[in-house]
């Protein structure tokens, strides 16, 4: 059976709710998705995270999945969208964090900067604060470790005494909440 035919078979079985088909599709396409993702984004941790998120989403929505002719192309496209969304969210988070940090450390903005960015920054800061309040204490801790301290998923898992998969899932859930409130 060819690579594409094999993936199509896994896809159809995934749609039927077969967990083993999800794992088989993941194992069969992971290295291809990783190489593809690294062409879009040089951050290997982010690419790995997005691949995991993609397959979690596929499983969560397996009943709504439509038949697909070219599963590999579908997964590449879905991963690219996942990466672009993630990069946009991280950029917004980092921007909001930078603004908050600048205020925390008492750095004053020039009068022109205040006029230009004032309203936008206040709105963004307010939205980020509201979104952060929606996170659980565990999610807030892991977001802090990932985005403020720059730890890898493995380091976060070791520091918080949880599995890497749980760390991925916690970050995924936290980002989903932040995305919802920052859009």
- Overall geometry comes to elongated
Question: What name is given to the CATH topology of the largest domain?
Answer: Rna Polymerase Sigma Factor, Chain: A
Low-confidence stretches: none
Structural class: mainly alpha
Lay out the secondary structure.
Elements (H helix, E strand, L loop, with lengths): L2 H13 L3 H22 L3 H17 L10 H34 L6 H23 L3 H12 L4 H8 L3 H19 L1
Description of the structure:
The protein is mainly α. The protein folds into 2 domains: 1-80, Rna Polymerase Sigma Factor, Chain: A (Orthogonal Bundle), CATH 1.10.1740; 108-183, Winged helix-like DNA-binding domain superfamily/Winged helix DNA-binding domain (Arc Repressor Mutant, subunit A, Orthogonal Bundle), CATH 1.10.10. The protein has 8 helices and no strands. The chain has helices at 3-15, 19-40, 44-60, 71-104, 111-133, 137-148, 153-160, 164-182. Helix 3 (44-60) packs across helix 4 and helix 7 packs across helix 8 (164-182). The relative contact order is 0.10. The model has no long low-confidence stretch (mean pLDDT 81). It comes from Chitinophaga silvatica. Residues 127-176 form the RNA polymerase sigma factor 70 region 4 type domain. Belongs to the sigma-70 factor family. ECF subfamily. InterPro entries: RNA_pol_sigma-70-like, RNA_pol_sigma-70_dom, RNA_pol_sigma70_r4_t2, RNA_pol_sigma_r2, RNA_pol_sigma_r3/r4-like, WH-like_DNA-bd_sf. One of its GO terms (biological process) is DNA-templated transcription initiation.
């Amino acid at each position: 059976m060819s690579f594409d035919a094999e993936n199509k078979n896994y896809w159809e079985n995934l749609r039927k709710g077969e967990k083993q088909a999800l794992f088989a599709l993941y194992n069969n396409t992971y290295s291809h998705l990783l190489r593809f993702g690294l062409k879009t984004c040089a951050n290997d941790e982010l690419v790995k995270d997005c691949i995991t998120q993609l397959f979690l989403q596929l499983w969560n929505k397996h009943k709504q999945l439509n038949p697909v002719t070219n599963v590999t192309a579908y997964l590449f496209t879905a991963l690219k969208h996942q990466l672009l969304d993630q990069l946009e969210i991280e950029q917004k988070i980092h921007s909001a964090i930078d603004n908050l940090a600048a205020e925390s450390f008492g750095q004053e903005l020039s009068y022109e900067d205040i006029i230009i960015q004032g309203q936008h920054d206040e709105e963004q800061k307010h939205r980020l604060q509201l979104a952060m309040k929606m996170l659980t204490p565990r999610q807030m801790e892991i977001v802090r470790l990932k985005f403020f301290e720059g730890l890898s998923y493995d380091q976060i898992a070791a520091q918080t005494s949880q599995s890497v998969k749980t760390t991925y899932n916690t970050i995924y859930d936290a980002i989903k909440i932040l995305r919802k409130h920052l859009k």
